[in-house]
Amino acid sequence: MSEQGTSQGAERARHLGDVENTVAPTRDTVQVERAAAETEHAGGGAAGLMSGPFGRNLGLVVALLLICAAGLVTAGDRFASLDNTLTILRFASALGVVAIGMTFVITGGGIDLSVGALVALCSVWATTFATQTMATDNHWIVMVFAALAVGAGAGLINGLVIAYGKVVPFITTLAMLAAARGLAEIISERRTQIVTVDGFKDFFGADVLGVPLLVIIFALVSIAGWVLLNRTTFGRRTLAVGGNPEAARLAGINVNRHTVMLYVLVGVCCGLAALMLVSRTTVGSSTHGSLWELDAIAAVVIGGTLLTGGRGTIVGTVVGVLIFATLNNVFTLNNQDTSTQAVAKGLIIVVAVLLQQRLARNATST
C-alpha cells in the first residue's frame, strides 16, 4: 500500500515538474513564433516596411522636416547656416545622452524623474574646489571620474530601492529628484562654480574635423546604445523585463539585478551629460538640468518607446531630441518666449504621436 502511494506520489511529482518546466519554454516558443511572424510581415513589401521601425519613425521625420521648413521660412539663412546646424547639435548633445539612458529605463518598464537633478549634482560635484584642485595637481580626468561615479552611485541607489525595496519607480526617483537637487545646492552653496582646469575645457571644447567633440560624443553614445539594445543579450533582457517581468523571471533572467543595472546605466549617462554641459557653459551649477526629466521622457515617448515597457527605439529617441532642439532654435531665432516654446512642444508631442498611430493603422489595414 505504501509502495503504491510512493509510486503515485513520484509520478505526480514528475508530472508537476514537467508542467513547471514547460512554462518558460512555452512562453519563449510563443515569442519566437511572434517574432518570426513579424519578420515575415516586415519583408512583405510596403505594408511590412511601414509596420516596422521605419514606419514608426517616419512620423517623427515628417515633424522634424516641418520644423526645419518653418525655420527656413521665418529665419532664412540664419537657420540654414552650418554654424546654426552645429549649434542645434551641440545643444541637443547633452540632453540626448540623458535620453538614451532614459530609453533603456522606460523600455525596461521603469521611469526616472531624477535625471535633471542628477545632472546638476554631477556637475556641482565635478567642479568643487577640492575636485578641481585634485584635477590640477594630477589630471583633469579626476573631474570625469567624479561626475561618472556620482551618477552611477545615485543610479545604484535608485535601482536598489526599486528592485529590492519594492518601491515604485515614480516615488523612488521623485525622492531622488528632491534629494539630489537639494544636495547640489548644499555643496555649491547655491553659487556658480567656474571651471578653472584648462585641460578639461580644451579637451571637451575641441573640434574634430570641424565637428564639436560634444556632437561626436552624442553620436558615439547613440551608436553604442543602439548596439546594446538591439544586438546584445542585455538589450533582449531589457525588452523581456519591460514586456513581462514574471515571464522574464521564469525564463531565467534575474529581474532585480537587471533593473539595478538599468538605473546605474542612466546614472552614468547623467554623469556624462553633466560633463558635456559643464564644458559648454564652463560652470557647474545646481540649476543645471532643470526640467530635463520632462524633455528626456517626452523625446523618448514621441520617439516610439512604450511608456509601459517592452519596446524601445534608440533611433526614434535621437530624432525626438533633434525635434525639440530644432524647435527651440527656431523660436530663439524668432525671439519667441519660453512659454510659447512650451505650448509648441506640447503640440509637437501630440502631432507626432498621432502621425505614428495613423501610419501604424494604415500599415495594419493593408
Describe the structure.
With 366 residues, this protein is mainly α. The chain is built from 18 helices and four strands. A two-stranded antiparallel sheet has the order 1-4. The protein has a two-stranded antiparallel ribbon with strand order 2-3. A hairpin with a 2-residue loop joins strand 2 and strand 3. Helix 4 packs antiparallel against helix 18, helix 6 runs parallel beside helix 12 and helix 6 crosses helix 13. It starts with a helix and ends with a helix.
Describe the structure using short key phrases:
366 residues, mainly alpha, two-stranded antiparallel ribbon, 18 helices, 4 strands, 80% helix, disordered N terminus
Structural class: mainly alpha
Q: What's the pLDDT, averaged over the residues?
A: 84
Please outline the major beta sheet: 2 strands, antiparallel
Total strands: the figure is 4
The Cα radius of gyration reads 24 Å
Helical stretch tally: 18
What pattern of helices and strands is seen along the backbone?
HHHHHHHHHHEHEEHHHHEHHH
Question: In whole angstroms, how far apart are the ends?
Answer: 66 Å
What is the multimeric organization of the chains shown? single chain
Strand order of the largest sheet: 1-4
Global outline: globular
Strand content: under 5%
Q: Helix amount, in percent?
A: over 70%
Outline the low-pLDDT stretches.
1-45
